[in-house]
Amino acid sequence: MKLYEYESKELARKYGIPVPRGKVAFTPDDAEAVAREIGKPVAVKSQVLVGRRGLAGGILFADTPDEARRIAEKLLGSTIRGVRVEAVLVEEKACIEKEYYLSMTVDRFARKPVILASYMGGVEVEELVREHPESLLKIHVDPGIGITSYMARYIVKHFGLPLSYTSSLMKILEGMWKMMNELDLELVEFNPLALTCNKELVALDAKIIVDDNSLYKHKEFAEKSLREYSGVELEARKLGFAYVELDGDIGIIGNGAGLTMATMDLVNLYGGKPANFLDVGGGASRERVKEAVKILLKHPRTKVVLVNIFGGITRCDEVAAGLVAALKETGSKKPVVVRLLGTNEEEGRRILREAGIHAFSELDDAVKKAVELAG
């Protein structure tokens, strides 16, 4: 479960991590009042659970309370990368000397918590790994020992800061470690962690992800657990599908997580972009397939739906019947491409072809066709 920036910063403040003065605002009047209380130029930041909001115009600056109000009027109710803005964070505008990246997460391969630190802040960590791997420092944390002073010194040196900053960074690391353990977090990320003109280390942006499996222990988070999902994601989850929203335009359906992910990889290989991950599971019935296809046909960004089914206990003719029913019920003209292999596959492909649906036995052929149709 992802927390909004303002919630993440409230927790950071509670655990002794420096963040800019600020408050969340749900109306333009609230934004003006917060800016007036701060009494300095402010940043007005859209509170949405998507990345790169700054590039989408979701972060603006105001020199006066009146200007903060006007910006809030513009942002509230607007859409950032497909998500409606319901709140803004109004906080003191920082004077930045240098930006860094600092996070704490779980390394599932090493089976240990890990600290990630880079002297290049304000950059997505995936981009750091891909484009600037030399900038990224990894330090594994022994759960039985926790944070030690050498870790702080190592990171300070990596940042190119004087060792006098060791105690400040140590305080931040200890706060992050305590949060991770007490709140069962998957990620605590400060990007950027900035060196301000006052020579202080301050978390200018904060991202926290809570482990969904721990929500039963944290009632304050459990009540908010569904809000990060889009309407499509909510519908899919209510129907019991494993569904993840992505940024592409080719809808993906498979039976089995591994098969579905392999299909997504192949779409990427041939130059396409998956719009989602949707696993209908083993033994999928005609009705279940129909509902899955209907979800993707209704998705505004999906240009084509690619279905990859391996028929073991799942019958390919049942899958085909569900696909045809979905197209009839929705009246959608979006193309559907299907790869069927296994139980009753020939009958399944016959049903699909009679309905004018692209049907294949080879996955490569199906993926190439889907990418072609998506343009």
Features:
about 40% helix, alpha+beta, about 375 residues, six-stranded antiparallel sheet
Describe the structure.
With 375 residues, the chain is α+β, with helices and mostly antiparallel strands. The chain contains 13 helices and 18 strands. It has helices spanning 5-14, 28-38, 65-75, 125-131, 149-159, 166-183, 219-222, 231-238, 257-269, 286-298, 316-330, 345-354, 363-374, and strands at 22-25, 42-46, 59-62, 79-80, 83-84, 88-92, 96-107, 112-118, 136-140, 185-196, 201-203, 206-210, 242-245, 250-254, 276-279, 304-311, 336-342, 358-360. Strands 7, 8, 9, 10, 11 and 12 form a 6-stranded antiparallel β-sheet that branches. A 4-stranded antiparallel β-sheet has the order 1-6-2-3, with helices on one face. It has a 4-stranded parallel β-sheet with strand order 14-16-17-18, sandwiched between helices. The chain is elongated and about 70 Å long. The model has no long low-confidence stretch (mean pLDDT 93).
Task: Set down the secondary structure blueprint.
Blueprint: H1 5-14, E1 22-25, H2 28-38, E2 42-46, E3 59-62, H3 65-75, E4 79-80, E5 83-84, E6 88-92, E7 96-107, E8 112-118, H4 125-131, E9 136-140, H5 149-159, H6 166-183, E10 185-196, E11 201-203, E12 206-210, H7 219-222, H8 231-238, E13 242-245, E14 250-254, H9 257-269, E15 276-279, H10 286-298, E16 304-311, H11 316-330, E17 336-342, H12 345-354, E18 358-360, H13 363-374
Parallel strand pairs: 14-16, 16-17, 17-18
Antiparallel strand pairs: 1-6, 2-3, 2-6, 4-5, 7-8, 7-10, 8-9, 10-11, 10-12, 13-15
